[in-house]
Automatic annotation (TrEMBL):
Keyword Transport included in the entry's annotation: no
Entry-linked NCBIfam families: malQ
Principal EC category: transferase
GO biological process: carbohydrate metabolic process
Keyword hit for Transmembrane helix: no
Family: Belongs to the disproportionating enzyme family.
Keywords in alphabetical order: Carbohydrate metabolism, Glycosyltransferase, Transferase
PANTHER family hit by this protein: 4-ALPHA-GLUCANOTRANSFERASE DPE1, CHLOROPLASTIC/AMYLOPLASTIC, 4-ALPHA-GLUCANOTRANSFERASE DPE1, CHLOROPLASTIC_AMYLOPLASTIC
EC number annotated for this UniProt entry: 2.4.1.25
UniProt name for this protein: 4-alpha-glucanotransferase
Catalytic activity: Transfers a segment of a (1->4)-alpha-D-glucan to a new position in an acceptor, which may be glucose or a (1->4)-alpha-D-glucan
SUPFAM superfamilies: (Trans)glycosidases (SSF51445)
Length: 660
């Protein structure tokens, strides 16, 4: 291995990958060089490369303990590095925060690694800790021969908080699409409460939400919840102004509320959200709420707000001195917390499931307040696949795999924590990014890319610790090409996967038998990147692509031919003689989901779009301006959707119980 290749290896920059065709593709020198440039690495001379390799590879062996020491809760060991021959005597371990002290014998240690530097052999030892340590992060002092070393112990459980053993039925919904008489053209936490109450009546156990991340107040047209300004903050448009007004006695606010509803009355009947109008109108009311709070809030409310600002001071520093923005966050947190409590009070097993986007916008608050951990001139994407032969570039900045460890991974710890509060579970979008991420890079003025690897063991430890700290279960969205070490690590860590019916096919293209599905996953018929079932069945998604010039008539003809084959495969999978290609689509849907809920997966999620019989997609992957992504409303009310699907939901609840 050359010094350059060693440097790439130490920085996590891959050398090759297996393409969807099975072909092994080697990353060129120029591409790997571009990845190092993105990390601002000086590799322009042999001396600088050698110095970096020493810093990353050899120097850690000269330190007794690392900055972070991972400790397995069930079988605790402290790992240290010393010179060979010095493995005699005792080491003192103190953790003042939990009043813990232990003497660890070097003679009882197990050698788990070694390294030779300049004819000196260093060994890594595992020292067993006989006393129990609680799960969490703790500053520790390690003393050897009167010299004190500092490390942070991450006492990590073997698994995340487990889901209930019982099978669970849930609903996935894009919250902003919901329609009601009281909202401002954008589904809010009051609508979520109504959805929770109706869902609980039918024995539904969880509601999977779209990411609720902060977007852009001054650029409302940037509507994608997967390209947010900040993933640790909540979009104020989800605040229920109606709930706030219910606690207000000020006629001025009530008059503004009525005026706003009047302005939005006709807009709320439109198929697509007019974000400019909706955002402008709602933020006007939110600003009035803040002014009234400043003038007339009770002492109890003021104390609650101040306590929130103190507790969340690090997170809220993104707003600098903007107290109004902090006030909106307080309202959003209070209402979201109430929604999860409502779920549990009504008997839901899990309640709300949050969705954490894979990245943030490169001009948003999250990037600007954490810029030091991001790489330069590289963006998150995906390698070539059958649907995008040139690969995909999602336009999101990437994290530098070395800088992310700064301050003992404080950035990621806060990110995961904030997205687990108030939720029964967290879905992690593109969970493979914990292990490796496709970096889109510009080489010779053309888009190229490579995989870059991340400190998977540390990120997995954070997830499991935060899971227990927040009592939150975990689901990893692992659709696509997943490295086998990720699949096995997630399974052994008690983190559920995500299975989509349409993608579960065998080597000859038939849909897999339901009994072949894994049980530790969330099974879905469709998600936000797949057309609703009725549209898929009739090929309306293909017609839409033609109308938007996203494919030619010839390509559409081929797609429809393939769709006919897949429709017959669905019928083969259902194996019910009374069902044919001419059967009513609603009957087909009902039979399909009733069969799916009887398969092994512990979690089954219905798309609310399908229950509402939508035909237009919420998002067309690979598009930006061509279609009104993330804007399509559900014009049918929550009450009417549940009323029309009462029989199906009762059947599904019964089938779920029968298959426990």
């Amino acid at each position: 291995m050359s010094p350059f290749e060693q440097l790439c290896y130490l920085y996590g920059i891959g050398s090759e990958f297996t393409k969807y065709t099975g072909e092994t593709v080697n990353f060129s020198y120029q591409v790997r060089e571009a990845a190092l440039k993105a990390c601002n690495v000086d590799f322009y001379s042999n001396d600088s490369i050698n110095a970096l390799n020493y810093e990353l590879d050899i120097k850690p062996w000269h330190n007794l303990v690392p900055a972070v020491s991972l400790v397995d809760e069930s079988e605790p060991y402290l790992k240290i590095k010393i010179r060979d021959g010095e493995d005699k005597g005792l080491i003192s371990l103190e953790v003042p925060e939990i009043d813990f002290r232990a003497e660890l014998s070097l003679e009882n240690a197990v050698i788990c690694g070694d390294y030779v530097d300049a004819d000196t052999r260093y060994i890594e030892l595992k020292l067993p800790i006989s006393k129990h340590l609680p799960v969490g992060y703790f500053s520790a002092e390690v003393t050897l021969r009167e010299e004190v070393f500092i490390t942070e112990l991450w006492v990590t459980p073997q698994q995340a908080v487990p889901f209930s053993e019982k099978k669970q039925l849930g609903i996935s919904v894009q919250l902003y699409t919901l329609t009601s008489s009281s909202n401002y053209g954008f589904g809010d936490f009051s609508d979520l409460q109504q959805l929770i109450r109706k869902s609980a009546c039918f024995g539904i156990d969880f509601i999977l939400l779209n990411p609720l991340h902060l977007l852009f107040e001054d650029q409302p047209q940037r509507a994608s919840p997967y390209s947010p300004s900040h993933r640790g903050l909540i979009n104020p448009l989800y605040i229920s102004v109606n709930d706030c007004l219910a606690q207000s006695t000020f006629s001025q606010l009530l008059d503004e509320h009525k005026s706003a509803l009047s302005i939005l009355q006709s807009e709320k009947q439109s198929q697509y959200i007019d974000y400019d109008l909706v955002s402008r109108t709602k933020y006007k009311l939110l600003k009035s709420l803040y002014r009234q709070f400043k003038q007339n809030a009770s002492l109890k409310s003021q104390r609650s707000f101040r306590r929130f600002c103190q507790t969340k001071s690090n997170l809220l520093s993104a707003f600098a001195e903007d107290e109004r923005a902090k006030f909106w966050q307080w309202l959003a947190h209070e209402q979201l917390n109430h929604c999860q409590k409502l779920c549990l009070s009504l008997g839901m097993q899990t309640g709300l499931i949050n969705d954490l986007a894979v990245g943030c916008a490169k001009d948003g608050l999250e990037f600007l307040t954490n810029e030091s951990v991001f790489a330069l001139n590289a963006e998150i994407g995906a390698p070539p696949d059958p649907w995008a032969e040139q690969g995909q570039n999602w336009g999101l900045p990437v994290i530098d795999p070395k800088k992310m460890a700064d301050n003992n991974f404080a950035y990621f710890r806060q990110l995961f924590k904030e997205n687990m509060q108030y939720f029964g579970a967290l879905r992690i979008d593109h969970v493979m990014s914990l292990r490796r991420l496709w970096w889109c890079l510009t080489v010779n003025q053309q888009q190229n890319g490579c995989y870059v690897y991340y400190p998977f063991e540390h990120l997995l430890a954070i997830l499991k610790i935060e899971s227990h700290s927040n009592n939150t279960c975990l689901v990893g969205e692992d659709l696509g090409v997943v490295p086998p070490e990720v699949t096995s690590a997630l399974a052994s860590s008690g983190i559920f996967g995500n299975t989509l019916f349409y993608f579960e096919k065998n080597h000859i293209g038939e849909f897999k038998h339901g009994n072949d599905y894994r049980d530790n996953c969330m099974l879905m018929l469709s998600n936000h990147d797949v057309p609703p079932f009725a549209a898929w069945w009739f090929g309306e998604d293909i017609d839409l692509k033609v109308s938007l010039s996203l494919c030619s008539d010839h390509e559409a003809s081929n797609l429809k031919d393939q769709r006919q084959i897949d429709k017959q495969r669905v019928l083969n999978w259902l194996n019910k003689s009374e069902l044919t290609l001419e059967s009513d689509v609603n009957i087909l849907f009902n039979e399909l989901v009733k069969t799916l809920i009887q398969t092994p997966p512990k979690l089954f999620s219905l798309n609310f779009d399908d229950l509402a019989k939508q035909t237009l997609p919420i998002n067309i992957p690979g598009t930006d301006r061509e279609y009104q992504n993330w804007r399509r409303r559900i014009l049918t009310t929550i009450e009417d959707v549940f009323s029309s699907q009462q029989s199906l939901l009762n059947d599904l609840t019964d089938l779920r119980k029968d298959n426990d």
